Amino acid sequence: MTDRSIRRAAERKARKEARRAANQANAQLSTGPKTEEGKRKSSLNAIKTALTGATVLLPSDDVAEYQRHLAAYESEFQPMGLEESELVQSLADISWRLRRMPALEMAIYAQGRVEFANQFEDQEDPAVRRNLIELHTHLVYEKQLRNLQLQESRLVRRREKETAALRKLQDERKHQSQTAAANGFEFSNAVLSDSPTVARPKIVLPPAVDAHVPDARTHTSLARFLAPCAHL
Length: 232
Description:
Layout: H1 3-29, H2 36-42, H3 46-52, H4 63-77, H5 82-115, H6 126-140, H7 142-194, H8 216-226
Helix pairs in contact: 3-5, 3-7, 4-5, 5-6, 5-7
């Protein structure tokens, strides 16, 4: 990783810690809603915090299932380095939030059916009455339902952007690895092909000499030495 990517990752982490500290400080100032209307509205706060908050898991979420979900993403993308790991973590969290959206939408209409169960009692047809209650729920909670749609679009765009960023990082890393491997292979071939072949000198061993067997020169020298003594 480059110094710039490491610095950017550290800055993102610092911003997250600052936001988390600010949220914790603000939470100490709130005691929750007092009126029934306030409690009813706060029951839908999960639509916001579950999609845009720093905390991905809700109290009702299955932690083991989330861990399996994250492990599947890590197995799929096999990140290397801090920046790739953060992108994979973010993609897993985005997917987890998107999976939650249908349940949140159904929860809104379920609450509406309970909250407005006593309305439209003048309608004799049960099917018409259910449709009216559903329409009334949609009108009352239009803001929350619209927020779901907006958050879904935002998360989908973010997923596409971060997926492209992750693919780019991994393609660059693979290209660098392939280039390094190719350069190393070509360098070895160049050394082998460009180096001149030097003939190794042939080592000629002298003939073996037996100290106990005199050669021809020894016989000649000995004859010359004994010649003057022949008359004796």
